[in-house]
Amino acid sequence: MKAIVSTRMMHWRKQWKSLLCWLLLPTVSTLLFISIAEQWQEETKIPIGLVVEDHSDLAQQLTELISKNPLLTAKQMELSQALVQLEQHQLDSVFVIEDGYQENIKHDNRNRVVTAYASDMSFAYTPVKEAVASYVQEDASSSRAARVVEQLAADYGGDANWKWEEIVLTSKKIQEEESLLHTSFAFLNQAEQVEDDSISIWKVSGVWALFNLFTTFFLFDWLIKERRASIRKRLSLLRISFKSYLLQNAFLYLVLLAIFDVVGMGLLSFYFHQSIHLDQLLALLSFQVSISIAAFLFALLFRTTFFYYVSVIPITLLMAILGGAIVSVDTQTWPWIAHLSPLQPFLEGNVVHSWFIGSLIMITIWYLRKEKSHA
């Protein structure tokens, strides 16, 4: 084994630049991809103008709700400036919170409390209008509930002297604390309910797994190169069988990849402010073992690196799609899909799965199968 390690280290020393680039590819590519995707997503938010003519508490709360909408970029400005930018198509639409908004809501008058302006290029006007209308409806519902409470207190002679503003404020606090308009769920046997407020369409772990899949398969091209007749003749003088030689070298690559996997996931977790646990590390190692064995066995099918490279690209992309790294896959409706790619168990945090067990069985069968004797 020492001879194998020293020989492989000599190879790596000569190719350290390309090897390091491949090993850093998953982490660096994930950082760049997610950063660019989030920046693009930020730039594709719907720009709207927000004119606030009422300075009451209820109007300020409505302004905050619109501004916090993750799909909107709300810019507060004067009406004249907003209309100019709307005509120049710098804004998709303009919404004016009219003066007397709180008083109108208080007296159940919802007509023209918010005025909207749109142009012939306002492609997102309808959904934005519905979102703003839903916020206004929430205020109207809170106001109606406050009047009902006041009426009940008057009818039944309650001692509490609550003001309309206090009742509305209390109802909003209860709505936030009790999550009346928010529902969370958890899968069966899930230890914790994980809530993610991000609207990013990309998963960091999924993107990283895709690039790691590419890296692992492309790094295992050494198997094809060292199975050439000229090199195999030299290796026939070894004291160990050729299969043992290949397996020991594959193990060294596996250890090297696993080290960079752990370091890379640690850096990504730190950069994206995510936590990493022991079960995730075990799932990561299981994933790396599975794809390394898959790459090893897949490389055995080829005699030239060109056809291997051409075949790797569609195979890895297909695995990424079926594994849910690119788009989400409904494994509840079609549970068999989870067995078609090693990415799905990794993203779900499974340590022992069909790919892990199957890869170990396949590599064992390959090793125990008879081979041609060598001099």
TrEMBL record:
Keywords: Membrane, Transmembrane, Transmembrane helix
Membrane topology: Multi-pass membrane protein
Descriptive protein name: ABC-2 type transport system permease protein
TM spans (from-to): 206-224, 245-269, 281-301, 306-329, 349-368
Pfam families the UniProt entry points to: ABC2_membrane_3
Limits of the ABC-2 type transporter transmembrane domain: 17-349
The organism's place on the tree of life at top rank: Bacteria
Subcellular location, record wording: Membrane
GO molecular function, one term: ABC-type transporter activity
Lineage of origin: Bacteria, Bacillati, Bacillota, Bacilli, Bacillales
GO CC terms, sorted: membrane
InterPro entries: ABC2_TM
Keyword match Oxidoreductase: no
